[in-house]
Amino acid sequence: MKSLVLLTNLSLLGFVCAYVYTKSQSVLRTWYWPSLLLHIFSGLAIGWLYTYHYKEGDTLVFFTEGIKLTTLARQDVEAYLTFLWTSEGPADFLNSLYYQNDRALFMVKLTSFANLLSFDNYWISSLYFSLLSFFSSWKLSTTLTRYYPATKAAVTLSFLLLPSVVFWSSGIVKESMALATLYYVIHVFLIFYKESKITWYRIILLVVSTWLLYTLKYYYVAVLMPVLVTAILHQQLSKRIATDSFWLHTALWIFIFLSLSLSVTQLHPNFYLDRFLWVLYNNYQDFISFSQPGDVLLFPSLQESWGSVVLLSPWAFISGVFRPFLWESTNAFQAVASIENLLLLLLTLTALPSLRALSRHSDRMLLLAAMVYCFTLCTFLTLSTPNFGTLIRYRVGFLPIFVFLITASNPLFQKSINFLSSHLKQLVARKA
Q1: Per-residue pLDDT tens over the stretch 335-387
Q2: In DSSP terms, which residues pair with 387 in a beta bridge?
Q3: Which of 10, 77, 86, 190 is such that its CA lies 20 to 30 A from the CA of 347?
Q4: Whole-prediction pTM value?
């Protein structure tokens, strides 16, 4: 029976992967299978890491809790469906659940869907999450290269192959679903922004994706939606402005963004103006208290004031993107992350001269939107979750976009790609 279930699931997933490949006409088609396999192996590696090395972790708890739901589904379908909708059910079942937090419990519900298909096989369930994350990244990547074909290499690295992002957004982890939904929302936004129209089925999927993202990572939505809505409103308003002044349009963009950001404070209790700074500061203190000294970012001057947050924001952004530095690494995983961070720092420094051309770019306000999103989300994530391990996972919500920004027009990156491409062609020619 287990062999039949395994064969059925692998055949189904293999067919879907092959179907998507045959239908794709993207310039990225060469990278389809390598990036797909990278996502699959990353999801399996997550499972192996927590099963055999740490011997515990959220991914394992999500799976085992999901089994409780699939057991309930096989015993009482009505009770299972009721629990999915209301989180209510038999007392003995509710008492057996490990998670009581709504967001974690929601991930357990999602895991139960994969478990039903896999007959409670962790590795097959992991494949479903990894492939969902991959397909969404593929969708966004093909959309970006359709509108910006010159950025093919930057898109490939940023959204398909970036090691830390692929690793931490594969398998049975919240980041898999969060990044999948985030990418889809951006994919639909880009289509509307560039074509000023959107199909009804994309609207439905957009609403579902936004709801899923909000339920899993509401703080992603709190930054993302004001940025996207601001970009659309500015696009419409700019048509009525006679001047093409970069600074005037930037001022207008910022004004719209700040106005919309105030409305976001009503999106979740943690964002209420009289509560936000308290939540941020206390989260910071909590992480400091349970983290090892070498695993935490320290901001001694952080206080419950906007002045403190504003003054710390540049260093918080730098820390969130580029730390741990090589000399700060205390274990193998931090060492690997610090090497990636060092490369990001090099790419960022070599990309700075291209900022001078920002004011002349045809989509300059869209680039501004991407920069504001990365800076805002990174800053608040770093200040509220200053643990290296946690932050490396959480930053998958902005890091691909940031890497795209620093590589799309980066001369060093382009020269490196050309160098590798020419040598690879020579190597292939010699073997042929």
Answers
A1: 888 999 999 999 999 998 887 777 777 888 899 999 999 999 999 999 999 99
A2: 296
A3: 190
A4: 0.93
How far is Cα 385 from Cα 135, in angstroms, rounded to an integer?
A: 29
C-beta separation of 72 from 93 below 8 A: yes
Q: Cβ neighbours of residue 178 under 8 Å, at least 6 residues apart?
A: 169, 213, 216, 217, 220, 396, 397
- DSSP reduced 3-state for 265: coil
CB 310 within 8 A of CB 302: no
Q: What pLDDT is recorded for position 1?
A: 65
The tokens for 197 are 């129209």
Q: Which residues of 134-151 are buried (b: 16+ CB within 10 A; e: fewer)?
A: bbbbbbbbbbbbeebeeb
Most confident of 98-107, 227-236, 243-252: 227-236
* Per-residue confidence (pLDDT) for residue 431, from 0 to 100: 60
Strand partners, 296: 387
Here the tokens at position 57 are 């972790």
pLDDT (0 to 100) of residue 415: 82
Q: Cβ neighbours of residue 341 under 8 Å, at least 6 residues apart?
A: 321, 322, 323, 324, 325
DSSP letters, 126-138, are: HHHHHHHHHHHHH
CA separation for the pair 163, 400 (Å, rounded)? 10
3-state secondary structure of 56: coil
Per DSSP, the residues of 182-237 read HHHHHHHHHHHHHHS---HHHHHHHHHHHHHHHHH-HHHHHHHHHHHHHHHHHHHH
More confidently predicted of 2 and 33:
33
Tokens of 336: 């690997």
